[in-house]
Write a structure and sequence with these properties.
The complex is a heterodimer of chains A (about 110) and B (about 120). Chain A has about 110 residues and is mainly beta. Chain A has strands at about 5, 10-15, 20-25, 35-40, 45-50, 55, 60-65, 70-75, 85-90, 95-100, 100-105. The chains are: A mainly beta (about 110), B mainly beta (about 120).
């Protein structure tokens, strides 16, 4: 199985901050990397697919980059609604695997 | 508009079989390139992929649970059913079904629409 490792596990930030979350795959996955966020008690929401393709309706302050084994999700100017847990997921091959999550908390 | 909704029991006893149904609308599971998957999330923990069924009935399972999982579809009824046999307390989780397009077999899945989730507690 391909292991996905996210860092940091959690972070505290303020509204307006720039935040970067990283995700590392245990082997090369090309650009088969998706990002989701999840608010408490809600289903995950797809933000970015194929490492850098922003989903329709997702604000442009979200961006993704990377290929191979190292990926990042950046949120420029963090907004109150962005406080959530973020997950990466590899779709290079089944079994599909998710990272352990990064919780973005209010400082 | 694509929607999915999970239904099933809230409480299951250890050793029993858990059956969950995903009812969906806004797409057809007979359409090429479409799949429906199941993902679970134990309380306070990360997401864990369980299974996928493709439009042509091709199925994929998590290796760690493959012996206990079965996924089936009824395209005419717009439903996907997941069964998990011999449940244990570690199977306590919120179970989600989700829609995905895929670019090639076994890769390119992104879950763009999700159900609200069905919390299942395994307890005697």
């Amino acid at each position: 199985d391909i292991q996905m490792t996210q860092s940091p596990p959690s972070l505290s930030a303020s509204v307006g901050d720039r935040v970067t979350i990283t995700c590392r795959a245990s082997q090369s996955i090309s650009n088969y990397l998706n990002w989701y966020h999840q608010k408490p008690g809600k289903a995950p929401k797809l933000l970015i697919s194929s490492a850098s393709s922003l989903q329709s309706g997702v604000p442009s302050r979200f961006s993704g980059s990377g290929s191979g084994t190292d990926f990042s999700l950046t949120i420029t100017s963090l907004q109150p609604e962005d406080f959530a847990t973020y997950y990466c997921q590899q779709s290079y091959r089944t079994p599909l695997t998710f990272g352990g999550g990064t919780t973005v908390e209010i400082k | 508009q694509i929607t999915l909704k999970e239904s099933g029991p809230a409480l299951v006893k250890p050793t029993q079989t858990l059956t969950l149904t995903c009812s969906f609308s806004g797409f057809s599971l007979s359409t090429s390139g479409v799949a429906v998957g199941w993902v679970r999330q134990p309380p306070g923990k990360a997401l864990d992929w369980l299974a996928l069924i493709h439009w042509d009935d091709d199925k994929r399972y998590s290796p760690s649970l493959k012996s206990r999982l079965t996924i089936t579809k009824d395209a005419a009824e717009n439903q996907v059913v997941l069964t998990l046999t011999n449940v244990d307390t570690v199977d306590t989780a919120t179970y989600y079904c989700a829609y995905s397009r895929f670019t090639s077999r076994s890769s390119g899945y992104d879950f763009s629409f999700w159900g609200q989730g069905n919390l299942v507690t395994v307890s005697s």
